[in-house]
Amino acid sequence: MSNIKGRYAIMGRGESDVGKRPEMTSIGLHLEAAVRAIQDAGINKNEIDGLIARSTRSAPQMNYSAVLAARLGL
Description:
The chain is an all-alpha fold and about 70 residues long. About 35% of the residues lie in helices and about 0% in strands. The chain contains 2 helices and no strands. It has helices at about 25-40, 65-70. The longest helix is centred in the middle third of the chain and has 16 residues, at about 25-40.
């Protein structure tokens, strides 16, 4: 594996609201947190080069990162 030190950075963080939220799906919670992370970073979503995410155990989905990226409009 090549050295990635200094080549990648996490620039923002976000969380979804917590508590009982029966109206939200697991991907909805991830989208809420991702949008907040983008806002926290102070960047435009078009500046994002990549996304890595893992689906939940309760709602497993193949290619979850690609699904989340598409839903974010990346």
